[in-house]
Write a sequence for this structure.
């Protein structure tokens, strides 16, 4: 049974924002503050989603129009899956995952953790497929293309290792019931910090990957600023803006989710 107590609002016909802020919902003996309408958050969240979808569509159109499209035979067609899948997983889904606690602040912490882990599981599945397409296209090329020699590939390996470490440690620390609460509280700051670092590294790796791809594809034509080169340069800039926007939402105190009595793991704002 849920009861609502409102202070200093009985004489007002229309609830005001201040009345919403002082409203308390009592559920199961706990006083739970309802979700506040944070000024400007819905607008910036809409911009965040629009830019993310724009990046995916831009990469798809670039590969479809300029790079002969997608397929499961032929070096180019297989390789084209790599930038698209990595953009969807390590950029868009990753960004939505780390902002998930802010976007659905009224949901219980346990449900948010399960949804957070589910999104990360999708990143692992489709990310592995994206990595496989990149490696396989190098192997079937004639002659075979060398692997793991560029800065993009080195940073990519580091990013994947960091992500898998985050995924494994987070799953064990926050979803495994036998882990003590004290250990979870100790692990939380490190989980957050390394998650942010992994996302930043994925942005850097993607920008380097786009630059490497377009230089190899256009060769000396790139210096004459063809349409494809200018378009992908613009996509790279939008990608950086997207990363900055995600960081802004993460560090802005007003956008953080307030702790609830039933959160359990964290007693601060996340």
């Amino acid at each position: 049974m849920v009861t609502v107590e409102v202070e200093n609002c009985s004489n007002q016909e229309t609830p005001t924002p201040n009345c919403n802020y002082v409203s308390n919902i009592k559920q199961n003996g706990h006083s739970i503050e309802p979700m506040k309408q944070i000024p400007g958050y819905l607008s910036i969240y809409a911009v965040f989603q629009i830019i993310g979808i724009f990046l995916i569509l831009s990469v798809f159109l670039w590969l479809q129009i300029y790079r002969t499209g997608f397929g499961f035979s032929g070096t180019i067609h297989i390789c084209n899956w790599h930038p698209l899948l990595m953009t969807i997983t390590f950029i868009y889904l990753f960004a939505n995952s780390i902002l998930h606690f802010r976007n659905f602040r009224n949901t219980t912490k346990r449900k948010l953790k399960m949804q957070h882990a589910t999104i990360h599981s999708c990143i692992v599945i489709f990310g592995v497929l994206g990595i496989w397409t990149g490696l396989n296209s190098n192997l079937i090329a004639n002659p075979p293309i060398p692997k793991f020699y560029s800065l993009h590939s080195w940073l990519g390996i580091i990013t994947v290792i960091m992500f898998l470490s985050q995924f494994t440690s987070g799953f064990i620390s926050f979803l495994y019931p036998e882990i003590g609460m004290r250990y979870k509280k100790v692990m939380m700051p490190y989980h957050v910090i390394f998650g942010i670092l992994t996302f930043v590294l994925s942005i850097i790796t993607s920008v380097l990957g786009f630059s490497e791809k377009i230089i190899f594809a256009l060769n000396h034509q790139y210096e004459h600023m063809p349409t494809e080169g200018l378009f992908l340069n613009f996509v790279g800039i939008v990608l950086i803006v997207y990363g900055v926007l995600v960081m802004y939402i993460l560090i802005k105190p007003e956008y953080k989710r307030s702790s609830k009595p039933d959160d359990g793991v964290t007693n601060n704002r996340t």
Q: What stands out?
A: The chain is about 65% helix and 5% strand. The longest strand covers residues 2-5. Strands lie at 2-5, 24-27, 30-32. The radius of gyration is 23 Å.
